[in-house]
Amino acid sequence: MDIIVCVKRVPETTEADISVDPQGTGILDSNLPFVINEWDNYAVEEAVRLVEQLGGSVTVVSIGPEQCDEVLRRCLAMGADKAIRLTDDALADSDARATARALGQIIKDLPFDLVFTGVQAADDGQAQVGVMLAGMLAVPHATVVTEIAVDGDTVRVVRELEGGLGERLELKLPAVLTIQTGINEPRYVSIMGIRKAMKKELAVANLSEINLAGDQVGPAGSLTSVTRMFIPTVEQKAEILTGSVDESCAALADRLKKGGLV
Amino acid sequence: MNEILVLAEHRGGTLGDITWELIACGNTLAEQAGCSVAVALLGRDVGQLAEQLAAAVGDVVVVDNDRLEHFVSDTYQQALVQLIAQRAPALILMGHTACGLELAPAVATSLAIPLVTDCIGLTFEGDALTATRQLYGGKVSADVLCKPSDRYLATIRGGAFPADESPAAAGTISTAEVTIEEDDGLKRFIEYLECEAGEVDITQSDVIVAVGRGIKEQKDMAIVEEFASSIGGVLACSRPIIDKKWLPKDRQVGSSGKTVRPKLYIALGISGSFQHLAGIKSGGTIVAINKDPNAPFFTVADYGIVADLFKVLPVLKTKIEELKQGS
Ligand SMILES: Cc1cc2nc3c(=O)[nH]c(=O)nc-3n(C[C@H](O)[C@H](O)[C@H](O)COP(=O)(O)OP(=O)(O)OC[C@H]3O[C@@H](n4cnc5c(N)ncnc54)[C@H](O)[C@@H]3O)c2cc1C
Ligand SMILES: Nc1ncnc2c1ncn2[C@@H]1O[C@H](COP(=O)(O)O)[C@@H](O)[C@H]1O
Q1: What is the DSSP string of B65-134?
Q2: A100: number of CA atoms within 13 Å, CB side?
Q3: What is the assigned CATH class of domain B202-326?
Q4: What is the CATH number of domain A2-221?
Q5: Using one digit for the tens of pLDDT, what is the confidence trace for A116-166?
Q6: For chains A and B, what is the number of CB pairs under 8 angstroms?
Q7: DSSP character for B176?
Q8: Total Cβ atoms within 10 A of residue B229
Q9: Do A141 and B106 touch (CB under 8 A)?
Q10: Facing B186 at nearest CB: one of A15, A172, A225
Q11: From A10-19, A226-235, B99-108, the region with the lowest mean pLDDT
């Protein structure tokens, strides 16, 4: 069972104050911590568990700058066997299609039974790359996967639908699955573990090494582009109860009481 | 401009709410672009759904085929791609739902057309399509421009385009013929799986205290549990709490969890992702307590406190108890 996992390095923004860059098409991220995309972390864990059970190998693949190595080393420490990072100036501003094309170009020459991506990347939330990759590799796919059981040359998966409903599907291998959070409990990675994994292979490739031309990715190879980023100016609907904790709680309790809610 | 083709979504014989929102979105755009809207209904024995749709939109085109009984993207893709070839729409609209996630990128890849997902705004300027969508969990918005194309594909976020209140005049139903290849066994539907019912049904409660990733340790669940019961509420949560198994799945609020309509919803340490907010449907009072003043939850809450929830909870509990005793 050879499994490829696509992982993206993303900024951690849940508690951060974000501002848009001077060009107006990106955010200022130099002060933000970067992490592995949450969904991809579950995907790596799932791949490592399957290979522990069934034998085989896990290869993690990421497109991005040198700083991605930190994320890839972390995946190696979780139990992946090998990492590949694709980097090239021409890849900047690739849309999901161009990203999937580049990932597909690497993956098609590797042995694989399964390819995992996250359901979505926490930064752009497109939820496109996994399915596009399946299209380019011409293999079946399933999205929002919360359970995986491999049986010979097929895999049975549970997809999460709406309202607590799920569905079981059967796919022929090889296949691409997009992994949902909660499918497992990702293991803890220690600094020690990362240090030990330094011996594992981390290969770096550029576009010409995977036989892609610069105009097949980046703006020329993309069908969509972000023309403007902005902080939404929605009217803050909430009445923010200010003051000390004591004051704001008293004000809230008072309003809830008046509304007959407590 | 050619028509806008909306893909109706249905499961178990019922049209999804998103279908009506897609139609509303399509109608607005069609007015802007000066074109018509048609609804594509794919499935098996869907005559009744077609009539429901025809009562609200002008043009319903049905693809009725045994192989479309369950939504499996492979067969749906085959049918839809043929329908698109027949009708040559300028834009295809789908929901950013479990179906849309599975199907839209596959169709876009096979037709090599621009795709924008999870749109909260769409506009045509001439033949050029621009979409507005959110990034970074809703903290940033972006305009996304599609390269000029004969055809575009977009998926829309649930709730972003409210359904039209008054349906249009009676429309027409037509059928389209497609050929679906023999089952190649690459992808098969097996069964639906219902979420197991637990001891507490959060949809029945008037007061819900919901917790999210702001709770960083399992032991702290006891604090919120106690707060919830002190105000007569039940405990619910966002997805990360379910992922960590700190509460059973039936306590999850959101698109892939439960939809609740309480009189009071208190969100503690939940950022307010659209998937979570999709599960709160009420004219009730919403309170958000979050230490990030930019948390998207504050855009939908009625009252907010920007503070550490662990500092707020004990004080809030006391204040409420004092008021109760006072009356
Ligand atoms: C297909 C799909 C379906 C999904 N379905 C659902 C669903 O049904 N329901 C759902 O909830 N999610 C769902 N999600 C996940 C969703 O996208 C978000 O990841 C999730 O809702 C985030 O949960 P959260 O707000 O608790 O965590 P975060 O986004 O991490 O937010 C935590 C918040 O806590 C605040 N905080 C931290 N510490 C404190 C403190 N001490 N005091 C006060 N505030 C604090 C932070 O400022 C932050 O705003 C789904 C995702 C996908 C892809
Ligand atoms: N730059 C990248 N490098 C590797 N994998 C990626 C990259 N961008 C996206 N992916 C994969 O595609 C998934 C979905 O991303 P998206 O379609 O952008 O929401 C992610 O969870 C990753 O698995």
Answers
A1: -GGGSS--HHHHHHHHHHHHHHH--SEEEEESSHHHHHHHHHHHHHHT--EEEEEEEEEEETTEEEEEEE
A2: 29
A3: alpha beta
A4: 3.40.50.620
A5: 999 999 999 999 999 999 999 999 999 999 999 999 999 999 999 999 999
A6: 272
A7: -
A8: 12
A9: yes
A10: A172
A11: A226-235
